[in-house]
Amino acid sequence: MSDNTQLQEVICIVCPKGCHLKVSPVDFTVTGGSCEKGIDYGIAELKNPVRVLTSTVKVEGSDLIRCPVRTNGSIPKGKIMAAMEEINKVALKAPVRVGEVVIPDILGTGVDVIATRDI
């Protein structure tokens, strides 16, 4: 394993255990996990961290003024702020249905932003 001063600490979120992982950014060795999923998560978190994004968008023509939305997959963590800028531009017209695509292929990620509530 590489020099301990370079280890990155990551808390695994794959299962409820929340293992405290230490990952080497040099050779991607992982310690502190209790299963293979944690090892895979630790490596992925350093190489290409991704997140599911949740937010709300404006709705017109309804008593409710915001509709909850989320990505239907994970997007690169580095694109979260740019994705939020795109989401903030959206104004839907009621009615809106759960699963309705609000923004297809956000930022060319292959991931859609979908509605998560009927309005």
Q: Oligomeric status of the shown chains?
A: single chain
CATH H-level homologous superfamily name of the largest domain: CPE0013-like
Residue windows where pLDDT falls under 50 for at least 5 positions: none
Helical percentage: 10-25%
Instruction: Say what the CATH topology of the largest domain is.
Output: CPE0013-like fold
**Cα distance spanning the termini:** 53 Å
Rg, Å, rounded: 18 Å
Strand order of the largest sheet: 8-5-6-10-9
* Number of distinct beta strands: 10
**Domain count:** 2
Summarize the structure.
The protein has 119 residues and is α+β, with helices and mostly antiparallel strands.
List descriptors.
alpha+beta; CPE0013-like fold; 10 strands; 119 residues; single chain; 5-stranded mixed beta sheet; 2 domains; 3-stranded antiparallel beta sheet
Description:
- This protein is α+β, with helices and mostly antiparallel strands and 119 residues long.
- It has two domains: 4-47, no CATH class; 54-115, CPE0013-like fold.
- It contains two helices and ten strands.
- The strands form three sheets. A five-stranded mixed sheet has the order 8-5-6-10-9. Strands 1-2-3 form a three-stranded antiparallel sheet, covered by helices on one side. It has a two-stranded antiparallel sheet with strand order 4-7.
- β1 and β2 form a beta hairpin.
- It is elongated.
- The mean pLDDT is 91.
Question: Which secondary structure elements does this structure contain, and how are they paired or packed?
Answer:
Layout: E1 8-11, E2 20-23, E3 30-31, H1 36-47, E4 50-51, E5 54-60, E6 66-71, E7 75-76, H2 80-87, E8 91-93, E9 101-103, E10 113-115
Parallel strand pairs: 5-8
Antiparallel strand pairs: 1-2, 2-3, 4-7, 5-6, 6-10, 9-10
